[in-house]
Amino acid sequence: MGFNFNHNFSLNAAFAQGERQKKSAGSFLMGFSERYQRIEADTSFVPPTQGKLYPNLDKLRYGNFISSIIYFGFGYQFVIQKYFHLTIVTMGGSGLQLQNYTQDNKKRAWINYPTYATIKSQFGYNGEHVFTNLIYTYEYNTIPIKESRLKIINNWIELGVGVRF
After folding, report:
1. pLDDT in tens, 7-25
2. Of 5, 17, 45, 102, which has the fewest beta carbons less than 10 angstroms from its beta carbon?
3. What per-residue confidence (pLDDT) applies to 157?
4. What span, in angstroms and rounded, lies between the C-alpha atoms of 92 and 54?
5. Domain count, the chain
6. Which residues contact 114 (CB under 8 A, 6 or more apart)?
């Protein structure tokens, strides 16, 4: 769920192309999201020589992590010659993470504070009947466990082409 504080700026026009934005504009953004992550390993997450430095992570076998994250950011869409557009959005935040994990036959439940950040960029054409765009997304999320912080980084590229009737 997200909030856009400028009615002249459209995330929908940039990333879903369900609308057309005809002038360049930007906005502060705010959002809330729920995330579920599960990690598991058949061996230790920590190299054998480093186990003493990370005693809790060294014993980790699997875990379920549910995060409620509030994030803030800014987005701007440059409209070039009415139909071409370039959009950049950055957001970051934190929240609460419910952790339920197993360490060598010992179950633990914990609450912690993850960090979250994303950068999303887009270039496209949004014409009267034909539209296309190329979207790149970088997403950073963490799972903090005692003395360590697992970093989860996702990158993806989307290519979209469509026709309006």
Report:
1. 999 888 888 877 888 899 9
2. 5
3. 97
4. 27
5. 1
6. 65, 67, 69, 94, 95, 97, 141, 142, 143, 144
